[in-house]
Amino acid sequence: MGPAALQLLSAACLAFTLGMFGTGLSDLRQMFATQSVENIQFLPFLTTDVNNLSWLSYGFLKGDWTLILVNAVGAALQTVYILVYFYFSPEKRGVLVKTMGLLAVLLLGYCYFNLLVPDVSTRLARLGLFCSLFTITMYLSPLADLAKIIRTRSTQCISFPLTVTTFLASASWTLYGLLLQDLYIAIPNIPGIATSVVRFWLFWHFPPDPNRPYKSLQA
User: Fold this and answer.
1) Shortest CA distance to 213 belongs to which of 155, 161, 172, 174?
2) Are 42 and 85 a contacting pair, CB within 8 Å?
3) Cα dihedral 76→82→86→92 (10° resolution)
4) CA 204 to CA 219: how far, in whole Å?
5) Membrane topology type, per the record (predicted)?
6) What is the pTM of this model?
């Protein structure tokens, strides 16, 4: 596979990942419409923002403009979601504590990788490992909701558009990582494919009621 295939996969990664991030716009519209954060989870916005910023650092260190562009836009979108959530949230202190806590972890990581790991290749490997583990954790965390879905026999609490875009984005990044021979990119996206397939099965087995609105699980 040559440069043309790499460019095609790069465009697919960009389009599908931004589509995945863009599904949060429905939550944004809901917050403005209801002037509240009811039925909207905060933690996914925060963890995705940290994940984007981590991969953005990896992209700059690696010199990969696909990673840089996707994660710069993703981090900007998630930051907007966080600020709007904070504005409408009645529990601002809790939101602030969670945000400051994860930002402190991010700052410690930045200091570690840039001050204590002077060798660039070693820094790239360790940062890649951190990003991979964080991404895998994010993809696997929704599996905890499966018990509730099976118990209630309802998929009203999961988003079908998000499932589709997650599957397409994960598949694109897996192929992109394999083409670049970068396992730090390829491997953490395999759980994204697997969890999306599980969600597709749940949608097939427990079809959502079109007369009932989508309602996210509480954090």
Assistant:
1) 155
2) yes
3) -130
4) 25
5) Multi-pass membrane protein
6) 0.85
